[in-house]
Automatic annotation (TrEMBL):
It is an enzyme of class 5 (isomerase). Pathway: Carbohydrate degradation; glycolysis; pyruvate from D-glyceraldehyde 3-phosphate: step 3/5. Keywords: Gluconeogenesis, Glycolysis, Isomerase. Belongs to the phosphoglycerate mutase family. BPG-dependent PGAM subfamily. Coiled coil: none annotated. The gene is gpmA. It comes from Sphingobacterium paramultivorum. This is 2,3-bisphosphoglycerate-dependent phosphoglycerate mutase. Its EC number is 5.4.2.11.
Length: 191
């Protein structure tokens, strides 16, 4: 039986500033580094065979701190844009509260929390799902089937898409799911 560990990157600078981050390459804060260290300590006794992360620095930096806390196991690290955060398009960089004032809180809530309505020029959670799940099935699931333990360090929405798939959640159910920064989520994967 293999284990799959999912970790959302530690707090980023734009999380702290309440800004839409999406595909912008923003690093983690000091608190984000602490969260990553805590995640590494929580996973210290778990054997990891391979790690996957996105192309964005906040996920890669988090992964590197986690692995350091785990004693820097000599494992392959795979970096792929398929695991990147949901693209927020024209909202990226904007303050969420100011955006709600400009477009109305109801519209911003729809952009952020509906399953299939994308923000202007961005991706919906459904779009993100359609990017993440084929990648998971093609590259990550086969490793789990081989009995390998896998660590994925990614983003709130790319991980929500994966959790939706793994737990067979409806669009309504996944919209209620929050994923804390730096908190490992563990799955036992049966053959």
């Amino acid at each position: 039986m293999a284990k799959l560990f999912l970790v959302r990157h530690g707090q980023s600078q734009w999380n702290l500033e309440n800004r839409f981050t999406g595909w912008q390459d923003v690093d983690i804060t000091e608190l984000g580094q602490q969260e990553a260290r805590q995640a590494g300590l929580a996973l210290a006794n778990e054997p990891i065979d391979i790690a996957y992360t996105s192309t964005l620095i906040r996920a890669q930096h988090t992964l590197s701190i986690i692995l350091h806390e785990m004693g820097d196991p000599p494992i392959p690290i795979v970096i792929d844009a398929a695991l990147n955060e949901r693209g927020y398009g024209k909202l990226e960089g904007l303050n969420k509260a100011e955006t709600a004032e400009k477009y109305g809180s109801e519209q911003v809530h729809i952009w952020r929390r509906s399953f299939d309505v994308p923000p202007p020029g961005g991706e919906s959670l459904k779009d993100t799902y359609e990017r993440v799940i084929p990648y998971y099935e093609r590259f990550i699931a086969p490793k789990l089937k081989e009995g390998k333990n896998v660590l994925v360090v990614a983003h709130g929405n790319s991980l929500r898409a994966l959790i939706m798939f793994l737990e067979h959640l409806s669009p309504e159910q996944i919209l209620e799911r929050e994923i804390a920064t730096g908190q490992p989520i563990k799955y036992q994967i049966e053959e």
